[in-house]
Write a structure and sequence with these properties.
By secondary structure, this protein is of the alpha/beta class. About 35% of the residues lie in helices and about 15% in strands. The chain has a 6-stranded mixed beta sheet, sandwiched between helices. Strands 8-7-6-9 form a 4-stranded parallel beta sheet, with helices on both faces. A hairpin with a 5-residue loop joins strand 1 and strand 2. The longest helix has 15 residues, at about 185-195. The structure holds pyridoxal-5'-phosphate and zinc ion. Zinc ion binds near residues 11 and 25.
Length: about 400
């Protein structure tokens, strides 16, 4: 069924049993990765067999942490479309501009992918009740998957998180704690309550399996491009779990013999008001520092110091990628422009990637003939209202 073999620390390399619950590495407090027996999988799996399966995250079940199909907590996640943006591409000066439209996922964001696998695995390993600190969308997704799984959930989010997120958690019956602070403050309070009550902590990268769900974006991109990866992948980076996951998928697929060594350049896009990864990348540092007074209209990017900073920065460097920050005004204007020009509804976070593409074409970092895939990580209908609309000023 699954080729899951063990867990491995992302920093110190120590290995752990994957059949018991784990949070961070007990030796060095770093994220743990799920490792698979890829030698055996390489002999037994054929990449072309996956095309016949339904469009679903679970199509990749051999490479996911699931022992039996009946365990899956499934709301119809994954298998999202790639859309070519010809008119926007022409305006930006590029010919092969694509978005992967993750807004189609359950609860309107790609957080569904991570929660599908993490909640599935947590339930299989005996968890009954869990906590999630979130900037917004992860809470909504976790609440829905908890309901689907028949589990109890406590969500900790900033009190100024988007209304859509607070409401979706309450509507589905989650216990919602509104925090005077940001996701890192929510994370501290959630962890303390989890310890006190014996709840499992599903904070991103604090357990090994949300990244497994998000890595399926990498598998799907490879399959959609017929196993010839695009030149560039542009990712709106908050916690960075999706970027790390996509990069992990490429490592796995190369070990499986499904793709060659040629990799896309990975681009991390952040908001000017919260840019810890951009600052660390520019200073050529291995880790990030807390971004003080983080503020941006793109709530998913309001992560002042991501736990996976080292892994994000490694992927950017290894791929010869880059990191850049964009303004809230440009994000809002681009969201509007894409909706009007292409009819495509983008989360502010997703629209940030197109702002970045514009900057990178202008600077010459991107060439007009390169194939570019931007992740539209959420649906536009979840965007907070009340932001300044430049087109109506
Ligand atoms: C969480 C979120 C992000 C950031 O994702 P990470 O993988 O944590 O970097 C981007 N966009 C949206 C819509 C999100 O909800
Ligand atoms: Zn370790």
């Amino acid at each position: 069924m699954t080729y899951l073999a063990h867990l491995e620390c992302s920093e110190c390399g120590q290995t752990f049993n994957a059949n018991v619950l784990h949070n961070l590495c007990p030796a060095c407090n770093s994220p743990l990765w799920a490792r698979y027996d890829l030698d055996r999988a390489r002999r037994e799996l054929d990449r072309d067999q996956f095309a016949a399966r339904p469009n679903s995250l679970w199509a990749w079940y051999e490479l996911l942490p699931i022992d039996h199909p009946a365990q899956r907590i499934d709301l119809g996640e994954g298998g999202t479309p790639l859309l070519r943006l010809d008119r926007i591409g022409e305006q930006l000066g590029t010919r092969e501009l694509w978005i992967k439209d993750e807004g189609r996922n359950p609860t309107g964001s790609f957080k569904a992918r991570g929660m599908a696998t993490a909640v599935t695995r947590a339930k299989a390993l005996g968890v009954k009740e869990f906590v999630v600190p979130t900037a917004g969308n992860a809470g909504g997704a976790a609440a829905a998957y908890a309901a689907r799984a028949g589990m109890a959930i406590h969500v900790y989010m900033p009190k100024d998180a988007p209304a859509a997120n607070i409401n979706e958690c309450r509507d589905v019956g989650a216990d919602v704690h509104l925090i005077d602070g940001l996701i890192n403050d929510a994370g501290r309070l959630a962890a303390a309550d989890a310890r006190e009550h014996g709840w499992f902590d599903l904070a991103t990268l604090k357990e090994p399996y949300r990244v497994e769900g998000k890595k399926t974006m990498g598998y799907e991109i490879a399959q959609d491009f017929d196993w010839q990866l695009p030149d560039v992948i542009v990712y709106p980076t908050g916690g960075g779990t999706g970027l790390i996951g996509i990069w992990k998928a490429f490592d796995e697929m190369e070990a499986l013999g499904w793709i060659d060594a040629k990799r896309p350049r990975m681009v991390a896009v952040q908001a000017e008001g919260c840019r810890p990864i951009v600052t660390a990348f520019e200073a050529q540092q291995a880790a990030s520092e807390l971004h003080q007074n983080a503020q941006t209209v793109a709530a998913g990017l309001r992560v002042p110091r991501p736990l996976g900073d080292r892994a994000i920065l490694r992927a950017l460097r290894e791929s010869h990628g880059t990191a850049l920050a964009v303004s809230d005004a440009d994000i809002v204007a681009t969201t509007q422009a894409v909706l009007r020009t292409e009819g495509v509804s983008m989360a502010f976070e997703g629209a940030a990637t197109l702002v970045a593409v514009r900057h990178l074409i202008q600077s010459g970092w991107l060439r007009p003939d390169e194939t570019i895939v931007c992740l539209n990580t959420g649906a536009g209908w979840k965007n907070p209202s009340g932001w300044k609309n430049p087109s109506r000023q």
